[in-house]
Amino acid sequence: MRLLLVEDEEKVVDFVQRGLTAERFAVDVARDGVAGLELAQSYDYDLIILDLLLPGMDGTEVLRKIRRADRQIPILILTARDAVHDKVTHFEAGADDYLTKPFAFAELLVRIKALLRRGATRQETVLRVGDVELDRLSQQVRRSGKRIELTSKEYSLLEYLMANAGRVLSRTMIIEHVWDQSFDGATNIVDVYVRHLRDKVDEGREGNLIRTVRGVGYAISDKEE
Amino acid sequence: MMNPGSIRFRLTVWYAGVLAGILVLFSLAIYVGVSTFLRRNLHGSVVKDAQEVGSIVRENANERDETAIGREVGEHFSAESNERFVRVLAGDGTLIYSSGSDQVFPPWSNSSSDWAFEMTHRPPGKEEVLIWTEPVLAESGKRYFVQVAASQAYNNDVLRDLLGVLLLALVVATAIAISGGFFLIRSSLKPLDNIASRAQKITSRNLHERMPEHNTGDELQQLSVSLNRMIEKLEESFHHISRFSADASHELRTPLTIMRGELETALQDQSTSPEAREVLGSVLEETVRLSKIVDQLLTISRLDAGEASIEVSRFDFAELVRTTVEHMRLLADEKNIPLRVEAADAVHVEGDRYRLQQVVVNLLDNAVKYTPEGGSVNVKVGADGDKAVLTVTDSGIGIPQEAQTHIFERFYRTDKARSRQMGGTGLGLSIVKSIGAAHGGQVSVQSAEGRGSTFRFEIPRSSVSADAGSASSESQAIASAKPIEIA
Hints:
The complex is a heterodimer.
Chain A lengths: L1 E5 L3 H13 L3 E5 L2 H10 L4 E4 L8 H11 L5 E5 L4 H9 L4 E4 L4 H13 L8 E4 L2 E4 L4 E4 L2 E3 L3 H12 L5 E2 H8 L10 H13 L8 E4 L3 E4 L5
Parallel strand pairs in A: 1-2, 1-3, 3-4, 4-5
Antiparallel strand pairs in A: 6-7, 7-8, 8-9, 10-12, 11-12
Helix pairs in contact in A: 2-3, 6-8
Chain B lengths: L6 H54 L5 H11 L7 E7 L4 E4 L18 E5 L7 E9 L5 E9 L1 H49 L17 H50 L5 H31 L8 E4 H18 L4 E5 L4 E4 L1 H17 L7 E8 L2 E8 L21 H6 L6 H11 L3 E7 L3 E9 L7 H5 L15
Parallel strand pairs in B: 7-9
Antiparallel strand pairs in B: 1-2, 1-5, 3-4, 4-5, 6-8, 9-10, 10-12, 11-12
Helix pairs in contact in B: 1-2, 1-3, 4-5, 5-9, 6-7, 7-9
């Protein structure tokens, strides 16, 4: 998969490129709008990550020009501008996703993968992590065949973690997906719910299936620590 | 009806007072002028008559005896038709001639004066008279006195009438001045009332509005222009401040993004030692919190500047509260805090669902956070008149009296160490206040230290008659809606 990153802030370029390369993406970088547009028109990228405040040509203009030529390519806007009308404007101009800085790298990754999957919206009905099985149709969770009773919030939380198994999810991402962003003010809501979920899922077992990653968030994986 | 302190009242009083004063002075001048003129006129004619009679006396003094003098005077000077009283006395005071009743004159006292003189006298039961006494020296050396008296009745009548007319004019003119002045001032101050009521309606949320500037060239136009200039400056600085907050937040975001990204990458690196990982994780946590503070500051400054576009829809606030509380119930369960919800029937409001949910979340989070294990939290939502009211009552630590007015201020913390330890940004209640204000409502608190607090959040209820269908799909910036006051 080949991605284009249009971003003028050197250090942002640096860690995004490193992180994406580590995830086996090929990343080309353009440091201003004109170069970004040229690259986008010259090569066939799978996805474009576009900053808005760019030297040369501003990101909005780049977005419009790319869209005029190509209706298909997924474009993710990555910007510090978070006003609602900015989002609306850019979605209308043809952006596929909009992520505001500062962001959790994990979130950028989740969104990139979601955009690349788009079209092929096949969703597995049964998710498995280790011996935990989550059935999306019956909304039932079993561990080693034994049924675990969950509240609806706990179920949503587990489903989100399992759908992104092996990946660290930030608290913000969890809040936005399981609750919604307006719950951001609830100080430790994610921690409390994860603790309860963990109690139920890991009941009577050694080790945690749901890991806490200090400063970042939570992840579920069968590689127990 | 009239306020004695109002400009209208004071101006009218001054106006009428000054006018009355001027009229009094003017009347006085007329009165004195006329009275002097009449007196001088009378004096002149009396003197003239006396001199005429004097010359008759002088002509006849030598040839005839004194009775003849009297007769000559009587024949040549018709006192009656001139409305004069004439008397001629010999030098020793003997009466030689008198035109009518002697009683007009005061009794002759010894007067050896060689000079003519004037006097006034009031005969009993009659009008005052002016008397001119003219000494006459005959060629023979004999002395006579000619006295001519004229009644002042006419003069007094004229003056009395004049006084009456002047007084009447004074009263009428003053009355006209008061009423005319009052209406004049009222009508000229009416635009001032308009300006005042317009100015009162201007708040931080509709600073783009201006006073009407009628092109009259008068002081009121000047006032409108100056006010508008002031509002413009206010608007500029207000925008400047919110612009600054926005720019500052924006500028803070880039370094925060880099910090966060670098820290996450370093944490991913398997070669990082567990000790370093711990430190990096801790720094990352603070970075995330800092990002959150920046975000919330920006949100508040946008809300306060009326710039945040708010998605307005009509929905049941009670239902929103119920579901939001359910989504957070575990927070209370964990601390063994019974969380009760009293939600009345549907309470429809027109507002931003997302923002109002934030209000519920922040108030509830606060209540649970500051209530020790085993306490209780009650949430109540219902209608109170035309308001939708949410109250969150806890049995927590409460808020000291002196802190209660400050808790809605940005970054205000009653117990700094404790609340920071609890996490949070110190902006939760400020956001609640700003959201309340943006919806034309407000938030208040009642608290007793050690016994708990009650937060009351209220916003206007959407009118029952409002058509649900047309309102619900509408979405608009709330700033452009009806004028909203800041709580």
